[in-house]
């Protein structure tokens, strides 16, 4: 059986990544009581400019407190703000599991952050290379053209997240969606981000759902994301966590199928193609089965 609930957190799986304002220890404490697989302490959009410095100190305190088994990420400010390095220097002594880089333009941005992280890890006594990087990779029109550059850019890269809010401003759009369905520019960004993540062999992370009280819509969007290949979803409200975790959980039918596929290849280790329940299966089916069961 694949890990679920607290066991999923223990196994390091990521289905739900909940944003928490970097200047709100109260919200961080509340989020820590929930079952999000990762908390993203945010120094970017949720913190006004005048409070950035204070938020850095509060974020470091949150990181050092580590009240639960959640993975802890920090979203720093974008490279074009000139604040990224100061953010990193302030929070790295707290040993975050990873950094979320907003408005990333491509692999060169990852390499720049990775260079800084190497120095800051050394200074903090952290094993070199252990801090992961997740990029929000579709927030500007120009970023779409950099999606193919993430492959092999850095072993630190752990995920690509697509985002619609800032992209809307970059495009000058008046509306992102209607009837709960994204318009075509955003579907394009979503799909290209998914493909870029698959090509780079990192986690594809679905964007936040902003209709806070519409849990049915959230479930539908999350199931569609899982169906298409996303492995996690970013969240902005604690009450979304359980819905998203459940939507990413494999069904009993999927578990049964996956177990049968893995067992078939285990019994025939030298075969590349097998017949199972009247269907031909091959190594891509085996990889899919392992993904369903949370196996490497």
UniProtKB/TrEMBL annotation:
Q: Please list the cofactors this protein needs.
A: Mg(2+)
Q: Which residues form the HpcH/HpaI aldolase/citrate lyase domain?
A: 15-238
One GO BP annotation here?
oxaloacetate metabolic process
Under Pfam families, the record lists: HpcH_HpaI
Residue sites binding Mg(2+) per the record: 139, 166
A single Gene Ontology MF term assigned here is: magnesium ion binding
Q: Which Gene3D superfamilies match?
A: Phosphoenolpyruvate-binding domains (3.20.20.60)
Q: Which UniProt keywords apply?
A: Lyase, Magnesium, Metal-binding
Q: Give me the residues that bind substrate, please.
A: 75, 139
Q: InterPro entries under this entry?
A: Aldolase/citrate-lyase_domain, Citrate_lyase_beta/mcl1/mcl2, Pyrv/PenolPyrv_kinase-like_dom, Pyrv_kinase-like_dom_sf
Protein family according to the UniProt entry: Belongs to the HpcH/HpaI aldolase family.
Name of the protein in question: CoA ester lyase
Organism of origin is Bradyrhizobium amphicarpaeae
